[in-house]
Structure formats: C-alpha cells, structure tokens
Amino acid sequence: CKKTGKASFRFYTTELEKQAEEEILIELRLKKALAQGGFRLHYQPVIDIKSGKLIGAEALVRLEDGQGATLGPDRFVPVAEATGLIADLGQWVVEEACRQHRIWLRQGMALTIAINVSPLQFRHPTFAKKLGEIISETGMSPGSIEIEVTESAVMDDVNEAVDILNRIKSLGVRIALDDFGTGYSSLSSLTSLPLDKLKVDQSFIRHIERDHASRAVTEAILSLGRSLRLDVHGEGIESEYELQYLSEHGCNQAQGYLFSRPLPAHEFALWCRQREAA
Ligand code: C2E
Ligand code: CA
Ligand code: CA
Ligand code: CA
C-alpha cells in the first residue's frame, strides 16, 4: 500500500480520525439546518394507564437532509453539545414544540408537551429566562409544558441543579426526571429536587418478562416514585405484557411502540383522531 502514496492515505485513517471527520460533517449539517430550517420534531403519545386516554406527547428532534434521509438525535445531539450549537438547537425545539402545542389546542387537543433538555442547555444561564419569555409571548399555560432532564445531568452537581430546577419550576412548568435508574442518584438528593415525574428507563422495561433483576429494579422505582407522590411513567413499552405488569405495580403513565412510534405532527394528529374514533 505504502508505494501508492497519497491514494493510500485512507488505509491508515484510524477509527478515531474517521469519527472526528464524521463529527465535522455533522457539525456542518447542524449549522446549515439551524440557518435554513432542517430540523423536525416528531411526537410520541403519552397515555394515562388507568383511563387509556392520550394525555401528552414527547417532542423528539430529527435532522433532515432534504433528500428524505433523517438523522436521529443520538447521532447529532452529542455533537451539538460539544460544539455549543445545543443552545440554538434547544431554543428552536422549545419554540417549535410550543408553536405545535398551540395549534393542537386550537384543534381541541389539550396535551402536555414534553421537551428534552440536555445537560449543557439546562445549565445555560439564560435557559429559564428564555423559557419564561416564550411562555409569556405565546400565552400558553406553563402547566402544559414538561421539561425532561436526565438523571445523570442532574446528579452531576445536585446543588446547582436544585437551583436551576427551582427557577424553572417557579414558571409553573412541570419537571420530569428522564432515564431514571441509569444514573447514580443518591436517594436523599432526589427528595430535594422539585420533581413532578419519574420516567423509568426503557432498559429495565425491555427485560421485565425474562429478567428477575429488571423486575426488582422497576418495582423499586415505581414504589419510590409513588411514595414521593410523583407521576411514574414507563417508557419504551412494546408489549401488552409490559403494560399490564407496569399497571399492576403502580405505574400511571405509559409511552412506547405498543401505542405508537414518534410521528411527524400531522401523522400524530391523524393517529389521535383514529384513536378517538375507535
Ligand atoms: P429519550 O428522551 O429517552 O427518548 C426516548 C427514545 O426512545 C426515543 O429515541 C424514542 O424514539 C425511543 N422509543 C420510544 N418508544 C420506544 C419503544 O417502545 N422501543 C424502543 N426501542 N425505543 C423507543 P430518539 O427519538 O432516537 O431519541 C433519543 C434520545 O435523544 C432521547 O432519549 C433524548 O435523550 C435525546 N433527544 C431527543 N430529542 C431531543 C431534543 O429535542 N433535545 C435534546 N437535548 N435531546 C433530545
Ligand atoms: Ca425523554
Ligand atoms: Ca428516556
Ligand atoms: Ca434515553
């Protein structure tokens, strides 16, 4: 190979270099999408288990390339965080989710809209202030917004997180702790957070049927959430078995492919209408 000179360069490209190259490409796509509007939100239904009613939607961001290909957030959110683009992306997500919420409200769909906030975004000094501005500009009811922060984001620096969450909470917005069970919460700090909901991570729910340990952890989380008087929400529910199990163990909200995948806004509205008609 060596004899072929420049042409053989790629043979020596390491995995790391490849990854760095890909990140640069994603960074370029992110900048382009921010400038030209290449992001879309998909919405996944949240169901109240007891009544079976649709009560909310989680907004999940996608990056589109304009040629029909879509990139998922696991690929580009880390790049957005590393490059500082997350602040603008996060701002767009909040504005777009609130805009969509208002449209649905006018159509008679009163939903709680859940918005994911990454660790850096959530610790950004103006996050709470900007959220407050969007709420007053749009006149939407703050109680119909739910901010999802991950357990690991919060536990990084609990004291700071308590401060920020209290500021967010004082706007009247709801707060959910996402991916619960995967981080390292000290249970005492959990009680100092102004939470409304625990979301049980799908990694436990996925193995409920086969794995005793996953059942034990899930049951512990559900009972902890209930005794703290929080909503407990199972995510990644794919089977009737999982739904039944969670329901029997005190889980009150459900989300997952069993109900629907995340959908573009117009498909989400269709899904809702079909469900109402059924
Ligand atoms: P998450 O907040 O834990 O979201 C749940 C993920 O699980 C979503 O993946 C969803 O599509 C997927 N999911 C839902 N139900 C099922 C199911 O029944 N089975 C399986 N296997 N998967 C299911 P997605 O959309 O790829 O999002 C991945 C992660 O990206 C999210 O995890 C969240 O942490 C992050 N993310 C998404 N949207 C945003 C955003 O607007 N801002 C920020 N900062 N992060 C976001
Ligand atoms: Ca989430
Ligand atoms: Ca989650
Ligand atoms: Ca997750």
Automatic annotation (TrEMBL):
<feature type="domain" description="EAL">
    <location>
        <begin position="23"/>
        <end position="276"/>
    </location>
</feature>
<protein>
    <submittedName>
        <fullName>EAL domain-containing protein</fullName>
    </submittedName>
</protein>
